[in-house]
Amino acid sequence: MDNICTGDLGRLTPMEYRSLVRKGEWTGSSMEACCGWALTDMVIVPKDYAVDFFLFCHRNPQLCPLVDVTEVGSPHPRRVAPDADLRTDLPRYQVFKDGKLIDEPTNILNYWRDDLVAFLTGCSLAFDWALLANNVQYRSIGAFASGIPCVAAGPFRGNMVVSARLFASARDVIKAIQITSRYMLAHGAPIHIGDPEAIGIKDLSRADRIVLPGKIDPPKPGEIALYWPTGGATMRDIAKDAKLPLMIVDYPRSGFITDLRSEELAIF
Fold first, then answer.
1. Do 17 and 102 have their domain in common?
2. Contact, 236 vs 253, CB < 8 A?
3. Mean pLDDT of 93-113
């Protein structure tokens, strides 16, 4: 997280950033953009599957905390960014058909249909801002497939992907739990602490779902691992198994930036 909230992207407002993305002038990561504004993951499904996915979110609220749901056929998230367009305002997308990844476009105008429903779910970057503001010492090491099962709904089923953060001391762990517990719409408190093998992860030296840029050192003596559900990466796994005729998700690290301050996800 050392590079978070730095450079020109970090100083942009959400509207400025989305305008840049919409014009195709930025197709990289959203993670360092718009310091302090809430980032979300996105899932788009046909309306015939929308109730099942809504139920999946309800049954797995820590994995998929719902921030907004669009009207059928509308690409505009009225509750969190009414002027935004989900077809163009993410840097990159992944398009699945029948469980197969067929495209990774910078907009989905060619795939949009009048029967689609978009779901925006909270992302842990919201509480990362709070951890940094409170001088909690930690480092992110990526996301890993776990053995923790999701509660199924219709075709949506599978195991959670979790993000791992290594904390420097027990004091930092306690502060992290206190802070993140407030952010229920950004996954809340950690889902597991300590031994990775207890949740089906054999090796923390290299992430197998989201690999962060740059060199990531393996866990050091004294560091304590905390794990949170990762909605975006989990949805990319689930999309392969659900085999919907069409399912669109955000590309890794390319979520949607809302008009909400990150702190609002603690009280929204």
1. yes
2. no
3. 98
Confidence at 254, pLDDT banded by 50, 70, 90: very high
Tell whether 107 and 215 lie within a shared domain.
no
Please give the structure tokens belonging to residue 238.
Answer: 């689930």
Can you give the pTM of this predicted structure? 0.91
We report the CATH number of the domain holding residue 163 as 3.30.2040.10
Distance between CA atoms of 61 and 121, rounded to whole angstroms? 10
Structure tokens of 224? 């304590």
Residue by residue, DSSP assigns 138-154 as EEEEEEEEEEEEPPPBT
How far is the C-alpha of 56 from the C-alpha of 63, rounded, in Å? 10
15 and 101 in a single domain? The answer is yes
Tokens of 252: 């890794």
Closest CA to 1 of 110, 129, 107: 129
Question: How many domains does the structure of the chain reveal?
Answer: 2
Question: How far is it, in rounded angstroms, from Cα 228 to Cα 128?
Answer: 12
Residue 268 burial by Cβ neighbours in a 10 Å radius (0-12, 13-18, 19+): buried
Strands, E, within 152-266: which ranges? Answer: 159-167, 192-193, 224-229, 247-250, 256-261
113: CATH: 3.40.1640.10
pLDDT over 90 percentage in the chain = 74
**Terminal Cα-to-Cα distance of the chain (whole angstroms):** 25
User: Quick check: is 146 in a domain?
Assistant: yes
Domain extent, residue 251, equals: 7-123+246-266
